[in-house]
Amino acid sequence: MQRVMTLLVAAVLLGLPLVAEAQTPSRPDDLRYCAMLSDLYLRYVGRPEWSGRTGVAPDVDGGVAVAKCREGDTSAAIPILERKLTDAGFTLPPRG
Description:
Elements: H1 2-22, H2 28-45, H3 60-71, H4 74-87
């Protein structure tokens, strides 16, 4: 029983940094940058009905990234939006 309790305490202590990192709020610079990327993505890449690409399935990854950006989860959203924009031939705006 003592060994199980020791292992449980060790697991909790090792997992705390991961939980703390996941709850770190986004910096204002990251929020602004993410909003710029989202705007560019929605305006030029993520709206097939606006670009004449009818019949094209919506890009779920891009939509999720925009939603994560709006929720403040910039660490998940920014890399996806940057990749979507560069894949579409855009030069990324300056960051910060």
